[in-house]
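DM from R.C. (forwarded with permission)

"hey, sorry to bug you on a friday — could you get me a structure for this? deadline for the figure draft is monday and I only need the backbone to look sensible"
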Amino acid sequence: MDKQLTRKYDDLIDYLNGFQKVGVACSGGVDSTFLAHACVHALGPEKVIILFGDSKLQSSELRRSIEERLVSELGKAVQVKKVAVDPFSHASFVKNRKDRCYICKKHVYLEFLEVLTSLEVDVLLDGTNCDDLQDDRPGLKALEELGIVSPLVKTGFHKEEIRRAAQSLGLRCADLPSNSCLATRIETNSEIDEELLRSIEAMEGFLHRCGYHGCRVRPRGSKVFVEILSGDIGRIAEPSERKKIITYFQEYGYDVVLLDLQGRRR
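My reply, with the result:
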């Protein structure tokens, strides 16, 4: 880390040292994993409870591998708890209105807080960073209502700083593309159902196997919109790649396959 980033990381550790014991909401992405790593550094693994919301909104691969991934990043002594959550039990979530993320986040974090109360832990941390505050994220309202603490915001961390710090610390997740739950691929006001989520997972899995990590697949009626990292757009434009991908989606039942030419950032 350079001097400025080192100072910011030291500020984070000093801030975390103000807690006795913490729970950390962790999705396996770079932000929350970096925060969890800092908590273990500051407080020791015995004072940190890592909470993962295990639901049908995540890919099957992530649900299978999350504990192993976190142990590899944070050490064998880390305490990881998979908390079963079922957003489909809330009709307001299934309706997929603009407040879907708020409803889901509040449900998940209430479950986390209940687990922490049973363990006599009175604070839950999450990996929100300063860049997130500039985006349209209804879920942030749930954090405010529930008193969730966001140390990366408190100490002024932005996404690229988190990536650089994570890389300096040797975290394998440092270059992982940003991810979000599968429900974000479904158009607002279109009901969410498990069959559609699994089909999206399968289609994104196909693109992953083709080497397009960090992709998004967004079904819209007879059309499907594909988003890939900006660095992959040149490759997907090659005739053989286009043919392979178009054929796959047409066999899946989509007449038109559209590509977002802006590309995604990590």
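R.C.: lifesaver. The first strand starts at residue 22 and ends at 25.
me: no worries. The beta strands are 22-25, 48-54, 79-84, 124-125, 216-220, 223-227, 256-259.
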